[in-house]
Amino acid sequence: MMTAPARTGSRAGIALAAVVPVAFLGYFFIYPLVAILATGLVEEGRFATSAFTQLITDPAMRSIAWFTLWQATLSTVLTLAAGLPAAYVFARFRFPGRAVLRSLTLIPFVLPTIVVGVAFLALLGPGSPIGVDLRGTIWAILLAHVFYNTAVVIRGVGAFWEQIDPRLEDAARSLGASRWATLREVTLPILRPAILSSAALVFLFSFTSFGVILVLGDLRHTTLEVEIWRQATAFFRLDLAAALAVLQLAGVTTILVVYARIRRRLTTELRLRPVGEITRRPQTRGERGLVAATLFGLALLIAVPIGVLVARSLTTADGFGVDAYVNLVDPPRNSAIFVSPAEAIANSLSYAVPAVLIASAVGLLASTVVVGSRGRLSRALDTAIMLPLGTSAVTIGFGFLVALDAPFDLRASFLLIPIAHALVAIPFVVRSAIPVMESVQRRLREAATMLGATPLRAWREVDLPLVARALLVGAVFAFAISLGEFGATSFIVRPDTTTIPIAIFRLLGRPGTFSEAMAMAVVLMAVTAVAAITIESLRGSRSGGV
Amino acid sequence: MRARAVVALVALIIAGCASGSDQPDEVVLMTHESFAVSDGVLEEFTAETGVTVTIMRAADAGTMVNQAILTKDNPVADVLYGIDNTFLSRALDASVFTEHRAVGIEAVPTSLRDPGNRVTPIDFGDVCLNTDIAGLEERGIGPPAALSDLTDPAYRGLLVVEDPSTSSPGLAFLLATIATFGENGDYPWRAFWQELVANDVRIVPGWDQAYYGEFSGGSGGGDRPIVVSYATSPVAEVYYGDLDEAPTGVPQAGCFRQIEYAGVLAGTRSPEAAGRLVDFLLSRTFQEDLPLNMFVYPASGDAALPQVFIDHAVVPESPILMEPSRIDANRERWLAEWASAVR
User: Fold this and answer.
1) Which of A86, A220, A398, B40 holds its CA 20 to 30 A away from the CA of B243?
2) Domain coverage including residue B62
3) Which residues 159-188 of chain B have a CB within 8 Å of chain A?
4) What domain range is A533 assigned to?
């Protein structure tokens, strides 16, 4: 008697929650996508098959598709290998500088690829201090993908890991299981949903890699994403670009459907623990060694390239100095390419704040629907919400132009940029939230409902606080995505707002302002680190109430 | 209640943003990412006409042209500025622009103009080789006198160029080699490129990697003393580096002229104001502001050059000019042939 109305109520609630993400995705993704694909593929009312014929028969296209797939797979495996030990160390151990170090791992994520190219060239180019020249090799691309995406694993898996009760592992160990057996039989199975989520995000990022390929690749290494851009903008072959985009979408959808199947089978209910109860100082020599080795590896991967950029920003004509920073604040030349760092930060934040709000709100509602319902709509939404991350930026950008002119002309709207950022960021919010939400014990919520709470109230008071922590992980990524001007924005006609990355591009676009470009990159890193620490400190204070 | 307020607010914002291009007191200028103008210059236009200028930015020039074509029937902007001669033909074929004879066009050399006045030349520049003067002296060799010198063993491993399929100066240099060596004959451009590769040319995706990453002259941090850049790059080195003498030189051979145009978009709702903005881009105020912001030359002969240009700029005597229609008709084929020549 008591559960029946509650169930009906929650079903209606879920349907209501679905309205926003479905409408958002429908209007800002599916509709522009269909519109631009139709523009490319429909000629005089007839479907143009010639582009697909060319796609299938051209061996160059086949090799691009094949390269896209295998480099993404390999990048994902390598990123997991680099990120999982670090996720473990950050989730389980307390050590001096932990919070700062963890926030530093986010920095690569926001760096423009041309800036990363500078660091890579210095370390792994002709003047390499270790004598390794990786220019134009596949290794440079793979290493860059690992550099960019390790943060996804550290945060995505780490956020889940630090809420798992370590007594589970302790119990296995006390029953005589070896450390390795405990890891394999207890820890990894529990972590699988979170690992799979992070892997899916890393895969999509690498699959649609654009800047890395353009900056570090060469003629032999091209992804579908780069080829779509080349066909669309260099040759204006919209038909071939659209056919390639269909191929890319088909690939991404296949991967996502497989991923969703595996993920649904892995859902586990776990007793999650508030953060802070679990981390401890490394005690044994082995633990201390593990922490030290992991931090050393992270330093090589992340801190060294960052250090190169900082050093470059401090290089002057005759040695070292802060000239570049002085020039940014007080330009010696009356030229409009110098935008003050404060102005650039303000401009970046004016996009990042709405992007985070949109991504968090839409992402949270979408996660609620996916977790709360097993229906077809929910499963479709689960896959569709990930698609923007796997869709080429040119396609989305051009799609906005042909689709969003009526009934409101949104093409010139300020809001379109944060909306585009949110499209790419929502998958991060959803993938961080779902593993935690699924593990929230249903019993807890059912008990609350039995005790007379409305479904909405049960959701607010039981699910929300637990999910808030996971949501903050998503929010950090949404912020970083917006700050780094990811993906779709490059091909949107945008208002004249000089954000930090755009200031860097301009400064790198002419001779004589290289140090200033590097100084602006350091500003970007500093803003990222400060924002990550700030958002994550919210996490600490919220969890106290759980 | 709160939800209703949010909906109302969003509707207001959307309406506010959407109504932009309907206002006769505003014109929208679409331009590429490198566009820069000094503070106060566009305000002079507003003071003269009562019309404010809103700038919208596309990514690179190629993307911008495609965006203009896609939105031909309902353009995002009223005026487009920054389309160059390598993409012009495509936009003209798609009838993106409406005819406008700009005030002051008489002061522009005929070689830069569009005979049909569909677009107005605003600025030009030359893509040229740049040399590291000290770097070449150390090696005891002079700057290349002709493009064919670059295949000489003396220049082995010294040149870095940009990939023409991803970079605009890279494409300009490819076109310069095609114009220099021709498509057929004993030694066509493809043969030249094969010999360049044999002589260890380095090909990188973009200008910034070539100049900052591989070039050894000026503010470059690499080890190659010859790069494909612009004829005005030494001026920028002097200007930003606060130097007395340019550290880099510009050989005369193989310079390719890029011309940037502005045009009134055919679908504009305020053709008159749009036309006045194009006139303003050709006015002395804007033309004299151009050089130090974008390191290009003003198209109008009436505009005075800044002193640093007069002192340090090298003006190529006979830069290569190629018909926009020829570029557009052959671009895809040339790029494919280039890719197989250098592979």
Assistant:
1) B40
2) 23-124+259-312
3) 163, 165-166
4) 22-312+323-543
Which pLDDT band, with edges at 50, 70 and 90, does A211 fall under?
confident
- At B132, which CATH number? 3.40.190.10
Indicate yes or no: CB of B30 within 8 angstroms of CB of A125. no
Cα B217 from Cα B219, distance rounded (Å): 6
> How many Å lie between the alpha carbon of B140 and the closest alpha carbon of chain A?
22
The answer on pLDDT for A166 being more than 80 is no
CA-CA-CA-CA dihedral for A419, A421, A422, A427, to nearest 10: 150
Do B302 and B154 lie in one domain? The reply is no
pLDDT 10s digits, A63-107: 999 999 999 999 999 999 999 999 999 988 888 888 888 888 889
Q: Is residue A148 a part of any domain in this protein?
A: yes
Region B140-163: mean pLDDT is 96
CA distance B281 to chain A (A): 17
Read off the pLDDT of residues B6-41 as tens digits, 9 standing for 90 and up: 555 555 455 444 444 444 589 999 998 888 888 899
Q: Is A445 exposed, middle or buried (0-12, 13-18, 19+ CB in 10 A)?
A: buried
Instruction: Tell me the two tokens of residue B339.
Output: 């890719």
Closest partner residue to B66 (CB to CB) among A218, A233, A412 is A233
Domain assignment of residue A17, yes or no: no
Q: What is the CATH number of the domain that holds A449?
A: 1.10.3720.10
pLDDT at A423 over 70: yes
pTM: 0.87
**Shortest Cα distance from A394 to chain B (angstroms)?**
9
* pLDDT surpassing 70 at residue B315: yes
d(CA B255, CA A214): 25
With beta carbons less than 8 A apart as the criterion, state whether B337 and B184 touch.
Answer: no
Distance CA A29, CA A487 (A): 13
Q: What is the pLDDT of residue A545?
A: 31
Chain A contacts of B223, Cβ < 8 Å?
126-127
- Alpha helices for B156-283 (secondary structure H): 168-181, 189-198, 207-208, 233-241, 271-281
Residues of A in contact with B59 (CB under 8 A): 490-491
Structurally, chain B folds into a number of domains equal to 2
| Interface size, chain A vs chain B, as Cβ–Cβ contacts under 8 Å | 167
Let me know whether B302 and B210 are in one domain.
no
A121 in any annotated domain: yes
Does a structural domain hold residue B135?
A: yes
Number of domains in chain A: 1
- Looking at residue B15, its pLDDT comes to 47
Is A219 within 8 Å of B38 when comparing Cβ atoms? no
Local confidence band at A240 (pLDDT 50, 70, 90 cut-offs): very high
Angle CA(A442)–CA(A446)–CA(A450) in degrees, nearest 5? 170
Do B223 and B91 fall within a single domain? no
Same domain, yes or no, for B53 and B138? no
Residue of A nearest to B334 (CA): A235
Question: Does A333 score more than 80 pLDDT?
Answer: no
